[in-house]
UniProtKB/TrEMBL annotation, chain A:
Organism: Planosporangium thailandense
Key word Cell membrane present: yes
Subcellular location as annotated: Cell membrane
The keyword Secreted appears for this protein: no
Family membership: Belongs to the binding-protein-dependent transport system permease family. LivHM subfamily.
Protein name: Branched-chain amino acid ABC transporter permease
Automatic annotation (TrEMBL), chain B:
Organism of this sequence: Planosporangium thailandense
InterPro entries: ABC_transp_permease, LivM-like
Highest rank taxon of the organism: Bacteria
Protein name from the UniProt record: Branched-chain amino acid ABC transporter permease
Keywords: Cell membrane, Membrane, Transmembrane, Transmembrane helix
Renumbered residue ranges of the record's region Disordered: 319-339
CDD domains recorded: TM_PBP1_LivM_like
Bilayer topology term: Multi-pass membrane protein
TM spans (from-to): 12-39, 45-67, 79-100, 106-124, 154-174, 204-229, 241-264, 270-293
PANTHER family: ABC TRANSPORTER ATP-BINDING PROTEIN, HIGH-AFFINITY BRANCHED-CHAIN AMINO ACID TRANSPORT SYSTEM PERMEASE
Amino acid sequence: MANFVQQCFNGLVSGAFLALLALGLSVIFGMLGVVNFAHGAFYMLGAFGAYVLLTNAGVNFWLALAAVPVALAVFGCLLERAFIHRLAALDPLYNFLLTFGIALVLQDLVKREYGVTSRPYPPPAELNHPIDLGLFNYPGYQVFVLAASAAACAAVWYLLTRTRVGVVVRAATERPELTRALGINVGAWVTPVFGFGAGLAGLAGVLAAPMRAVNPLMGADLIITVFAVVVIGGLGSIVGSVVAGFGIGVATALCNLYVPALSQTLVFVFMAAVLLWRPAGLFGREEARV
Amino acid sequence: MRGHGMKRWGILLGLVVALALPWLVYPPIALDIAVWALLAISVDLLLGFTGLLSFGHAAFWGTAAYATGLVALHTGAPFPVAVIAGAVTAGLLAAPIGYLSVKRTGIYFAMVTLAFAQMVYFIANQWRSLTGGENGLQGIPRDLFGVDLSDPFYFYYAALPLVLLGVFAAWRIVRSPFGRVLVAIRDNPARARALGYPVERYKLLVFVLSATLAGLAGGLHAVGHGFASMDDVHWTTSGQAVLMVVLGGIGTLWGSVIGAALVVQLEDVLATAGFDGTGIVTGAVFVLVVLLFRRGIWGTAAMWLPRARRLPALSRLARRGPGATPSAPAPEALVKKGA
């Protein structure tokens, strides 16, 4: 029993990263119609940002957790202005290809500088001890990751559904022409939303640094899994991304406990099942049949 | 009739270049150009002529590489038999993947094919007894009834007929009534459906054909290099093929050949120069082409030749902004709202 619950916890922690990345991907897709391939690279840059700040400037984890996502948000805004914006009027496949190219450049730039070996990043001292959860002891840092990502997901949900900013963004996502007609400058929201999504990826990256291997390829491998997650949850659906992220995390962890051979491919099996029964995704709305 | 003559000269020129290639470049590079060109053509068959961006062709290229290697290693069959067995395996794998993937269009199709290819990658990584895991399959023989093909120069000519067969198949598909329907589906799926064409079945069939061609290329690559490895099923291989198509010109077939030649040469130059970080260059090429040069090389050249000014795929993709085609609802716009 303790084993089962503990494995569920492990699943929730790894699901937290999937959820945070899927959430950013969905927010960006909703507003811009862009599937951001570079999202994995932003996540990797987040982890490397924390690593570089610690080793070169001695900046601790907590400062990095605040600064790196902001830096990535700014970086995301610049990228949007410089490149992605120019292709906004074209078939979204072009921006998919563009962000793929950007991801390759970022990944190999970091690889050239730091090589492919994984870098260690120590968890912050405050959290570097087990916490007693009743049934078992659990690493404190993992508990923090779970709480932080749940808080981040809740904050995004609150921001989008309960605030004026959220109302504008949702309106601009669903009915851009009508929103414009109501006197809202939809174009002005595109860049900050992209930056926000990039910042979320950066946050996930910093959170991942102390418990995942920090290396240039960490994002590319994860982003493809995240693509499967958003297809399952329904791309553009905030709730779908979060539920599918945590759900896939737990399912994979449990699968690892009982059928380890299947655990890596499980997410793709789920995706196949969703495509078969509900092609729009669990929380996605029906795509017009064309 | 003059146009017909020009086309014949063009094909003749292409054949001459194909035959002369091992004299022009280092023979192993010539083989790489030929097989990558076939892979790029298979991707263009979907992207340029059906409007489906497959980001998962590494699955078919790599699966065929393993299947070809296994057949050649365990049965000692002549290499063309092994390669064709590999291509058939890739086609069989494409049936279920295609069946599920064609349920989505546009950007989703790209994501779904990428995800399924990653699944194939994980399976190849896990099934070590079959694929050799990280070590891959080594020492794949290139037997052809006892003829010594160990020299890459001669092997190129042994492999060329199979490559040309694949290129010819793609060309025939595009020119056939079946290919016309594919273009109709690409340009306006709703209308094609209204005319009574089973759109999904057409997409599935072309997906399987495309994967078979990719498999043919992958098998030849494995035999040519003597090994099949995890690299063959990795997503970078899919991305590479898409880059070749976009650089050469989407929907032009021949552009893919030029794109393949340039990318293979570029990688060779970077590798010999000891440059670590090929992705910086290929990624930058991706960005530049997509931003500034969306017609690709062949597409741009064809624009200057007044005769060949019809480039359906590009004009469509470039025109397709929100509300740019009032007669037909842009599927992307619908996807965006309905997702």
